[in-house]
Design brief:
Elements: E1 4-16, H1 20-27, E2 36-48, E3 53-57, H2 64-72, E4 79-85, E5 88-91, H3 104-114, H4 119-133, H5 148-159, E6 166-169, H6 178-193, E7 197-201, H7 205-211, E8 214-219, E9 222-227, H8 229-244, E10 249-254, E11 260-265, E12 269-278, E13 287-289, E14 293-302, E15 306-317, E16 322-327, E17 335-338, E18 343-351, E19 357-366, E20 375-380, E21 383-388, E22 408-409, E23 412-413
Parallel strand pairs: 3-7, 3-8, 5-6, 6-7, 13-21
Antiparallel strand pairs: 1-2, 1-4, 8-9, 10-11, 11-20, 12-14, 14-18, 15-16, 15-17, 15-19, 19-20, 19-21, 22-23
């Protein structure tokens, strides 16, 4: 059976009643009003198709944990309906509720049994659980002796020992070490490719971009945005800055090239133009070559007196991963006492050490090293350019190294020979 999840107009309210009699009357459907009513989720609707990976993001208090409780059935919605199909595996908290006095092996048996697997199935899977967890002799030690990372290793190994139809993972993986995180994400990718539906709740926006086909932004208990990960995550980053400064505006549109441009800021400084140029000829470049000397030229207009003005650049690959970023705060080139009406031109010279592919440049005009203090204007993916390898040795990856091989045989350097 394939896993599918449908959340239809779901809401959850926590209520305070004037008396237990009124609480009981509400259970039987009598129209009684509570003394207090706090809605933590309202009008939430979305679906996850078989084989689809969806990330859920949002600030603390947005309603993510409550939503997970409703989806897994540990809490019931006040309104709306949650429909699940197939076998569900979930890691909602550190250790999956392990008994600290039982060993990892005993907890693995207990948790797998609660998931509905037979003794024979669990015994057959136990060697794989132990091998994947990689906690060594601790597997037969009480869980109270485990570190948080070891608990996550065993919990994830148990939850994924049997291929689920729907896998739900909360923030638990964030406490694991980098090696185990990579190992876990490889397993989740394999499950996704085999048709498992995945719901990942995470503050790690890079993980959401790397794994998920869609992202859902929760804010104040409601779905604020549901779409492609790059679009939702860029909007989320702009929203965080906007909450720090209510005068900010946020605009978003998807270009014909597929890149999403998200623009936010107060408008006290604005990007009038951003161009990529050949550093020698000054000609504009849309298709750069590996090893080429390039220059980014940004012209900004100022509409208010600014004590400090900082320009930052961020470069991303097509998957949205940041490959480089810096700003004039870090290079100690902050422009001070910039006056309204001024025009400021910034240049950034660099060598194209990128691999073949498509890349974007996101500029930010701010007052310090971060956009959280004064965000005059931040534009995600304002400039997009392509890179080709015209005359360098063939290589793969997103970065070019000025590297050469040197080979010796029996102490003698060997010449370069093209194989037949």
């Amino acid at each position: 059976m394939s896993g599918e999840l449908k959340v239809d107009n779901v809401g959850k309210a926590y209520r305070v009643w004037k008396s237990e009699w009124l609480r009981a009357a509400n259970w039987f459907g009598m129209p009684v009003k509570p003394r207090e009513e706090n809605w933590v989720l309202r009008n939430v609707s979305f679906s996850i198709a078989p084989g689809e990976a969806v990330g859920v993001i949002g600030q603390n208090g947005a309603g993510k944990s409550t939503l997970l409780k409703l989806i897994t059935g540990t809490a019931q919605p006040t309104e709306g309906r949650v429909t699940r199909t197939g076998r569900v595996a979930a890691i909602l908290e550190l250790g999956m509720g392990f008994n600290p006095d039982l060993t990892g092996r005993q907890n693995a048996f207990h948790s797998s049994g609660l998931m509905g697997y037979s003794q024979e199935q669990i015994e057959a899977a136990m060697p794989e659980i132990e091998a994947f967890a990689e906690v060594g002799d601790y597997f037969d030690q009480p869980v109270r002796t485990y570190s948080s990372g070891m608990q996550v290793r065993v919990a994830f190994a148990v939850a994924t020992a049997f291929t689920p139809d729907l896998l739900i993972v909360d923030e638990a993986l964030s406490v694991g070490d980098s090696y185990f995180q990579h190992k876990s994400f490889d397993r989740m990718r394999r499950f996704r490719d085999q048709g498992t539906s995945i719901m990942l709740v995470s503050h790690s926006l890079g993980d959401v971009k790397a794994l998920c086909d869609r992202a859902i932004l929760l804010d104040k208990g409601q779905v604020l945005k549901d779409g492609q990960p790059d679009e939702v995550i860029d909007y989320y980053n702009a929203l965080i800055a906007k909450k720090e400064n209510e005068t900010l505006s946020v605009e978003q549109r998807r270009q014909a090239s597929g890149w999403v441009t998200t623009r936010s800021g107060t408008g006290q400084a604005r990007v009038d133009s951003l161009r990529l140029l050949d550093a020698h000829s000054g000609q504009e470049v849309r298709l750069a070559t590996v090893g080429q000397k390039l220059r980014l030229e940004l012209e900004a207009s100022i509409s208010a007196d600014l004590p400090n003005l900082v320009l930052g650049f961020m470069m991303r690959d097509k998957q949205g991963h940041v490959i480089w970023g810096s700003n004039t705060w870090h290079t100690r080139q902050v422009q001070q006492n910039v006056l309204s009406g001024e025009r400021v031109v910034f240049h950034l010279d660099f060598t194209c050490t990128l691999g073949a592919g498509s890349y974007s440049v996101s500029p930010a005009l701010v007052s310090t090293e971060t956009h959280m203090v004064d965000n005059y204007e931040w534009v995600d993916n304002l400039l997009v350019f392509d890179v080709m390898n015209a005359d360098q040795t063939t290589f793969i990856g997103s970065n070019w190294l000025d590297a050469t091989f040197r080979v010796e045989r029996n102490g003698t350097p060997t010449p370069s020979i093209q194989a037949d």
